[in-house]
Amino acid sequence: MLSENIFLSVVIPAYNEETRIKGSLEKIHTYLDAQAYRHEIIVVDDGSTDNTVKLVKEAAQRIKGLKLIKNGKNRGKGFSIKNGFLNAKGEYLLFSDADLSTPIEELEKLIFWLKKGHDIVIGSRGLKESDIQIHQAWYRELMGKAFNLFVQAIAVPGIKDTQCGFKCLVRNAALAICKRQRIERFSFDIEMLYIAKKFGYKTKEVPICWFNNPHTKVSILKDGYRMCLDLIKIRINDLKGKYY
């Protein structure tokens, strides 16, 4: 147990999130403040050019335990979460997208399985029990399902949804994985789960409630192409021994 005795660290990667970061932080704070455990909230700014940093600093004056880390320049979601995890102090480390497409209340489902002995618990939109309140456009859902088949064939078999931005890890697993990660952008989830599988960390996929945000920053063509290349890169990295 760490001296600070922090049970949970919530890491939020943020890039130009001025329209929603304030509301999301308030929701997270309201939920966590009602819990019996100590927590911290870490916003990792990824080189925002809008008022994200200013709004987080203002929120930190009202919200105890809210911290801001700045990457300095845009490095990507994967780098931001890695940076947040390596600076976190909690027993359990959660990362959540800034738009709260998965409501913070869904955290209870993840904590339940971590306490049962799992090292990583991931929120999933791909299970039959998942509650998708607002769907993506049909072509995004179709492309997502096709990409997942590719992911399962190349890197992480058995996981229906590697890309949902709501995952919680026990501290030792999170730090061990982060120190080995090489992917800095959207494919980092796949690399994280690949490394976890390689080193035998116990992973659980659980259904969550999810609301699509139409203002996603993921380009279905540009980022989709890059993520497919990253799958090959992950396998090459492994063959070169970069994950040891």
Q: Strands, helices and their partners?
A:
Blueprint (H helix, E strand, L loop, with lengths): L7 E7 L6 H13 L5 E7 L6 H9 L5 E5 L6 H10 L5 E5 L10 H9 L4 E5 L6 E4 L3 H17 L11 E5 H8 L9 H11 L4 E5 L1 E3 L10 H18 L5
Parallel strand pairs: 1-2, 1-4, 2-3, 5-8, 6-9
Antiparallel strand pairs: 4-7, 5-7
Helix pairs in contact: 1-2, 5-8
Please tag this protein with its features.
two-stranded parallel ribbon, alpha/beta, 244 residues, single chain, 7-stranded mixed sheet, globular, 8 helices
Quick recap:
This protein is α/β, with parallel strands linked by helices and 244 residues long. The chain has 8 helices and 9 strands.
Textual characterization of the structure:
Helix 1 (21-33) runs parallel beside helix 2 and helix 5 (138-154) packs parallel to helix 8. The protein starts with 7 loop residues before the first strand and ends in a 5-residue tail after the last helix. The chain is of the alpha/beta class and 244 residues long. The strands form two sheets. It has a seven-stranded mixed β-sheet with strand order 3-2-1-4-7-5-8, sandwiched between helices. The protein has a two-stranded parallel sheet with strand order 6-9. Helix content is 39%, strand content 19%. It contains eight helices and nine strands. Helix 1 (21-33) links the parallel strand 1 (8-14) and strand 2.
